[in-house]
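Long-time lurker, first post.

We've been arguing in lab meeting about whether pyridoxal-5'-phosphate would sit comfortably in this protein at all. Half the group thinks yes, half thinks no, and nobody has a model to point at. So I'm putting the question to the forum: if I give you the sequence and the SMILES, can you give me back a predicted structure of the complex? Inputs are below. Any interpretation is welcome too.
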Amino acid sequence: MALIPSEALIFERSVPGKIGMDLPALDVPAAKDTRPAHLKRQSFDAMPEVSEVDVVRHFTRLSRWNFGVDEGMYPLGSCTMKHNPRINEKVAALPGFTESHPMAPAKHVQGNLELMWTLQEWLKEITGLQAVTLHPAAGAHGEFTGIMLIRAYHASKGAKRSIVLIPDSAHGTNPATAAMAGYTCVEVPSQADGTISFDDITDASSGKTKKGLLALISEHGREIAGIMITNPNTVGIFEYRIAEIAKLLHDIDALIYMDGANMNAQVGLTNPGYIGADICHLNLHKTFGMPHGGGGPGVGPICAAKHLVPFLPTNPLVEAGGEQGITAVSSAPFGSPLLLPITYGYIKMLGGEGLRRATEMAIVNANYMSAALAGEFRTFFTGENGRVGHEMIIDLQNFRKDYGVEAGDVARRLMDYGFHAPTLSFPVHDTFMVEPTESESKAEMDRFVAAMIGIKRECEAAVGQEDNVVVNAPHTAAEIASSEWAHPYTRELAAFPAAWVRSSKFFPVVTKIDAGYGDRNLMCTCASLYEMDCGE
Ligand SMILES: Cc1ncc(COP(=O)(O)O)c(C=O)c1O
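Top reply:
Settle the argument with this. Predicted structure of the protein with pyridoxal-5'-phosphate, as tokens:
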């Protein structure tokens, strides 16, 4: 089945002469057009001619195809898809923010500068570090900035260090960043509880031994520039030996980069400075109220300890950064300042108490779900006290063998139950990483638990049946309403597997696709830039 069989592209709906905007004739002399001819589009033929109504309906309809956190629980572990208070977006939409130019003279934007200064002070307090740069536009961009600072720090001492240690559970952006900054990544294995292993680890089946942290430090010594570490780590467990790790690295003058993506489990309870980090990024679009998804927009400020302040990034046009600062990482002096009022409003509204409470609730919620699922699903890793941090990895590794169903099928079936799929097979194969965040109520979490157990029962019932309700998920409206239905289960079970789905059914527009084929075959449905008439 094609994805959306009868969907006409907006280009195909173009009707010559239709317009979305009608401006009166100029009653002042036209401004001189100083744009270089080679940069100008030669014609607008490639743009669809549609009315404003067409455009609004087009994009509204497209937005309805998406399942968002406004629709229901979006437990995408590591990504922190929580509810973001709308009031902060209203604040950010005030004209004083939206109409100020990033290069406006300082005397014209004193209010914006004050907001940014105050926000930086708060972020310093939250992270326990001494300086902040707001330049990076995302977490990964922050990582790059941070690693370049570490590089500049060692270079300033004339030290040639070539290695960055990265735990095997790390997010892919960590090794990518270190490699982009010219470092060799050396993997640190995790022990059975998911935390960094100090000792060597021998794989029982292959007999191969991986060096633990202590052996790696003694082998590479002062070749090591630093370690990139996430806390809680990406399997949802607090690195309870983090202070020891920091000391071991500091003893050889290597630095600790803390990936702040999971900072929503630290705010108000502990902080990167306290646990020994020299530098960290914050994903303001995860922890601090900015909506995100689909690649942005975001802000990934870097918070740095005193010894890294001289290397903070500069800007060629505006005074910024340290005296030995690395070159600019964003063209605008403060990255994406338009978004900062959102985080400012979020922190201001919650205050210290509220921020801590949000962190506590994120951790309590994850532990509640882990316990509620325990009778049916094992939580893969738990820390020294048998608990998780703010997210958990749920084990589905037996599903393929026991029921002939893959973890991906269970994730897709969750959509029929009205939930977004959790993070799948990251960082452990055939598992879900579930992060309920502080936004979810007990009632919603109970529904999710009921859905997981309901799907497990469906899997058990499906043993030996190739055509079953889990492997065929998700079920689209078109499929449910079609006159042909050859499956051994009912349409009702397919689309309305639980009572709560009746009052708020979300039909995915796309059914199961051949993901492997899709990954290998890039398809694009709009004209390429070369086909568009963009002039020379
Ligand atoms: C642990 C971790 N590090 C880094 C990143 C990268 O952050 P961003 O998506 O803002 O670039 C993510 C994003 O999901 C993450 O989960």
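For your lab meeting: The radius of gyration is 26 Å. DSSP finds 16 helices and twelve strands in the chain. Whichever side wins, do check it experimentally.
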